[in-house]
Amino acid sequence: MEKQKIIDALNEIADWLEIKGENSFKCNAYRTAARTLEVFDGDFSKLIEEDKLAELKGIGKSLAEKITTLTKTDTLPLLEELRSIFPNSLLELLKIPGVGPKKVKTVFEKFDIKTVGELEYACNENRLVELPGFGLKTQEKILKGIELYKRSAGRFLVDVVSSSSERLLNSLKNLKEVNSLEVAGSLRRARETVKDIDILVASKKPEPIMKAFVLQPKIAQITNQGETKSSIVLEEGISADLRVVSPQEFPFALNYFTGSKEHNVALRSRAIKMGFKLNEYGLFKIEDDKETLLKCKNEKEIYKALGLAYIPPELREDRGEIEAAEKNKIPELVSDKDVLGIFHIHTDYSDGIFTLRNAVEIAKSLGLIYIGVSDHSQTAAYANGLKPDKVKQQWEEIDKLNEEIGDFKIFKGIESDILVNGALDYDENLLSGFDFVIGSVHSHFNMKEKEMTDRIIRALENPYITMLGHPTGRLLLARDGYPVDMDAIIETSAKNNVILEINANPYRLDLDWRYCRKAIEKGIILSINPDTHRREGFEHTKYGVGVARKGWCEKHHILNTRTADEVLNIFKKKKS
DNA sequence: GCCGTTTTCGGCCCGACTGTTTTCAGTCG
């Protein structure tokens, strides 16, 4: 059994044990082990072979044995046993907001409820109220939870959430009681998809803020309303939480609610070891059963008090950032203002909805100093891909525009389909005329991993490819990427000096941030590309910057932080 | 089930909110 399947199995065991009513720390041990494997970056099969699993933190003798059994036999007696006690569909019930393992256990044991549909029916028949610990309100809450669960998988693309969150911030920021406010949670950490919006406000007078929050327009539901915390569901289906804390507590609360959960746990454990207690209200020195608050003006001071360099939110995923901060080795992350130009732009030559000249105007209005145009190549008939004569026509127009507009540079590029055999989409003669070539897979997604990897590797070994576009082809919340061995892709790209794209389209965000770090460690240059077809798309670049930051990228790791001349040199060097 | 400069036993991050209770359990983040 491969690593990911083992991670899934361990999490499944944790779910079952919780439903069974096992000791919660034991359940957590399974989750911790799953998490440890997820973050482990080395050679997994070697670890098993050499019997060194138990050396990993969070995996002891018992779990090491279980993981080994899973690897070797593809199954585990414990897992089989748990699966025979409970129907598989119970795991689905856990995903309903307001329904946890205890409630699942109760409805299953008392009413033999196994599916979301059966649970909904029981609520509507008013049957849940008779259960111990349940009441009318609980039943209503579960019904609402089911409705929300059915409406969406519960996650949203980052551009949608960003605009909703801005709307919420705007509705609060001018209230005189608001001292400061900030978005926390996964949005602040620049995750690729977001479950809900967490807003944090510092104020000495929470009441009017709470009121304003729940009374604003475009709210579908108020799910929580307390003195310091309220929750709403917006018409778009996105949940939003507001928490109000005192100005003194604000940095601690901001740190706490930014997460990730794993980062928080690690930070708190560190605090405990140092004789502190850290929570959303403060950092406390514990001496003789007395707690003394250490005042911190901002997050930076909290980290400093814990002996750490400041850790930017994007890095707070418990993937080595605390160790890096300990050694003062936190990277100086690339930022929006470092981006000087952008590549991967589609004009109306293929399937974009603006002209070449429009593209220049939009880019200039955003303060950029160059763009790289890359329309689709001839095989992409669905996208009006360019035949060779069209390519030449576009080159002429680019030459004219470059002459006309002095302080701006347009690079000639193409997004060439990587054909099913791994070839690029034009002959060498034409390919050599482009400043840059993005190779992308747009067809035959259902190849086997080995075939797909070979196909892409062949393209990467083509001397005319400059960048690999959206390396996995995923569409977030809609379609998984094609199966591909990313480690092999990264290896081959490094060997052939191919730039990897961070596609900044909110549907893609591909290369995934988890691989960005691997890529730059191999010396690969990344390019943040909006892959835009319309005016608004230019501004998606910022989501790509988020991915790069999350992938530990500094300015020098990114192609489009360089000047036009520097970029041209890189392209020329690659071609030669 | 894991872990250890206080520890091989007894903790494990912890507080808000809700609802069902009459002091607490469950869920969430």
Q: What does this 3D model show about the protein?
A:
The protein has about 575 residues and is of the alpha/beta class. The chain is about 45% helix and about 15% strand. The strands form 4 sheets. It has a 7-stranded parallel sheet with strand order 11-12-13-14-15-16-17. Strand 6 and strand 7 (about 240-245) form a beta hairpin. Helix 1 crosses helix 7 and helix 22 packs across helix 23. It is globular. The two termini are about 45 Å apart. The model has no long low-confidence stretch (mean pLDDT about 90). The protein binds one DNA strand of 29 nucleotides through helix 2, helix 4, helix 7, helix 9 and helix 14.
Question: Could you give the topology of this structure?
Answer:
Blueprint: H1 3-20, H2 24-39, H3 44-49, H4 61-73, H5 77-85, H6 90-93, H7 101-111, H8 116-124, H9 136-151, E1 156-157, H10 158-173, E2 180-183, H11 185-188, E3 193-194, E4 196-202, H12 206-215, E5 219-225, E6 229-234, E7 239-245, H13 250-258, H14 261-273, E8 276-279, E9 282-287, E10 290-294, H15 299-305, H16 321-326, E11 341-345, H17 356-365, E12 370-376, H18 388-404, E13 409-417, H19 428-431, E14 436-440, H20 449-460, E15 467-468, H21 486-495, E16 499-503, H22 513-521, E17 526-529, H23 541-550, H24 564-575
Parallel strand pairs: 4-7, 11-12, 12-13, 13-14, 14-15, 15-16, 16-17
Antiparallel strand pairs: 1-3, 2-4, 5-6, 6-7, 8-9, 9-10
Helix pairs in contact: 1-2, 1-5, 1-7, 8-9, 20-21, 22-23
The chain binds one DNA strand of 29 nucleotides through residues 23-30, 32-33, 57-63, 97-103, 132-138, 141, 185, 196, 198, 224-229, 231, 241, 243, 256-257, 259, 261, 264-265, 267-269, 271-272, 277-281.
